[in-house]
Write a structure and sequence with these properties.
The chain has 14 helices and nine strands. By secondary structure, the chain is an alpha/beta fold. It is globular.
Length: about 350
C-alpha cells in the first residue's frame, strides 16, 4: 500500500485541492512574503513597548513563530491572542497585528474593533474580506497577501511579512540574511521531501508509513520547537483528519510522562515524535534522551526528527516542512483528501445562522 506515495496519478486523484503543490511552493511563498512585507506602508511613528498578534488557526501560527523567534532578538515582548477580546494591557503603545487569511474570521474582527477603540497602532495581514475593508476605512496599514490556498498552507505569507515589518521598525536586525538562507534551505528540503522523491529516501514519506494506524503525539521544547510541535498537531488534525497531541520539554517531564503506564493497549496505539534542535537547552537535550529510554517501549514507536539549517529560522522551518509533508502523505495513505475541512465549515455555518 505504500506505493500510493510514489504514484502521481493516485495522488492527483486524492489531493483535489492541490495541497502538495501549495507545499512545494513554500520557498517561493517565503520570498514573495518578504518582498510584500518590505513594501507595505508602516504606521505613523509611535512609541511601542509590546506587540500583540491576534488571530486563529493557521493565521495565529505566524504569531507564535514571531513570539518564539523574537524572544532573544527583540527588546519588546510579543504576545499571541486567540480570542474575541484583547488583553487589558493593550493600549496606545501596543502594536497590534490583526491576522486573518480570509479576512472574515469573526474572532479577529472582534479583536480588531477593540484594538481600534483602544487606539492601538495596528497593521492588518490578510488577503481581503471584512478585515481589509475595516482597516482601509480606519487608514490602518494593510499587508495584502495572495489568496487561493488554505490558511494552513500560507505560513510564509502569515509570518514572514511581520518579520520584515519588525526589522523596518527597528525591533530586530539581520533578518534579511536569515530569510535568504531559509529560502535556500527550503529549496533543498523540497528536493528531499517532495512527492517526486521516492519513499526509500524521503523522510516525510517514511514517517507517514510508520504513523499509519497510530495516533501521533508530538513533543517539542520550550523556546525552540514548541510552536513546531503545535503546528504538527494541527496539520495532522486538518490534513490527515486524525487525533494528534502535543506537549513541550521540560514541562512534560513534570506531568505527562507519568501518564504512560496504563492502559497498555491504548498506549500501543500512540506514536511519539520528538522534535530536536541544536538550539535546545543542554539539560533539555539530556531530558529528551532519558525520556525516550523511559517511554520508548510503551508506545508503538518513537521518531526523533532533527532540524537542519544554519540559522534558527531555517532550523524551525525545516521541521515545519517535514511535518507538513508527513501529514499530507499520511492522509494519502488513508485515502483521505487533505484539503477539505468539512467539520470546520459546518461549524462556521452553524455559527453564522445563530448570529445575535
Amino acid at each position: 500500500m505504500w506505493d500510493v506515495l510514489d504514484n502521481p496519478e493516485v495522488i492527483e486523484r486524492i489531493d483535489t485541492q492541490n495541497m502538495l503543490a501549495a507545499l512545494w511552493n513554500l520557498p517561493d511563498q517565503c520570498r514573495e512574503a518578504w518582498e510584500i512585507g518590505n513594501h507595505v506602508d508602516l504606521p505613523a511613528e509611535v512609541k511601542v513597548n509590546k506587540i500583540v498578534v491576534t488571530g486563529l488557526g493557521g493565521s495565529a501560527i505566524g504569531g507564535d513563530l514571531l513570539r518564539v523567534f523574537s524572544t532573544d532578538k527583540a527588546a519588546v515582548p510579543v504576545f499571541v491572542n486567540r480570542h474575541y477580546s484583547l488583553p487589558l494591557f493593550v493600549d496606545q503603545q501596543t502594536l497590534v497585528f490583526a491576522v486573518s487569511y480570509s479576512g472574515n474570521t469573526e474572532e479577529t474582527l472582534s479583536a480588531y474593533e477593540i484594538a481600534s477603540e483602544k487606539r492601538a497602532p495596528m497593521i492588518v495581514l490578510t488577503t481581503g474580506g471584512k478585515l481589509k475593508n475595516m482597516a482601509q476605512a480606519d487608514k490602518a496599514p494593510v499587508i495584502t497577501v495572495p489568496g487561493g490556498i488554505s490558511p494552513r498552507s500560507a505560513t510564509g505569507y502569515l509570518f514572514i511579512p511581520m518579520l520584515a515589518v519588525l526589522e523596518r521598525m527597528g525591533f530586530v536586525t539581520g533578518i534579511s540574511e536569515e530569510v535568504t538562507e531559509l529560502i535556500q534551505q527550503l529549496k533543498l528540503l523540497r528536493d528531499q521531501l517532495g512527492p517526486q522523491a521516492g519513499l526509500s529516501g524521503n523522510l516525510s514519506k517514511q514517517l507517514a508509513t510508520r504513523l499509519y494506524g497510530h495516533i501521533p503525539v508530538i513533543w517539542g521544547s520550550s523556546g525552540t520547537t514548541e510552536v513546531v510541535a503545535q503546528r504538527w498537531k494541527g496539520q495532522f488534525n486538518e490534513n490527515t483528519k486524525t487525533p494528534a497531541y502535543w506537549n513541550v520539554f521540560p514541562e512534560l517531564n513534570h506531568n505527562e510522562i507519568v501518564g504512560f503506564e496504563t492502559p497498555a493497549e491504548i498506549l500501543k496505539n500512540l506514536f511519539l515524535i520528538i522534535l530536536r534542535s541544536k538550539d535546545d537547552h543542554d539539560r533539555v537535550q539530556k531530558r529528551i534522551e532519558i525520556t525516550h529510554q523511559e517511554i520508548g517501549e510503551k508506545v508503538a514507536g518513537v521518531a526523533q526528527i532533527h532540524s537542519v539549517g544554519d540559522t534558527f529560522l531555517s532550523r524551525i522551518y525545516s521541521l515545519i516542512y517535514t511535518g507538513d509533508y508527513a501529514s499530507i502523505y499520511l492522509a494519502l495513505l488513508y485515502g483521505i483528501d487533505p484539503g477539505p475541512v468539512k467539520v470546520i465549515d459546518r461549524l462556521k455555518g452553524a455559527l453564522a445562522s445563530q448570529q445575535s
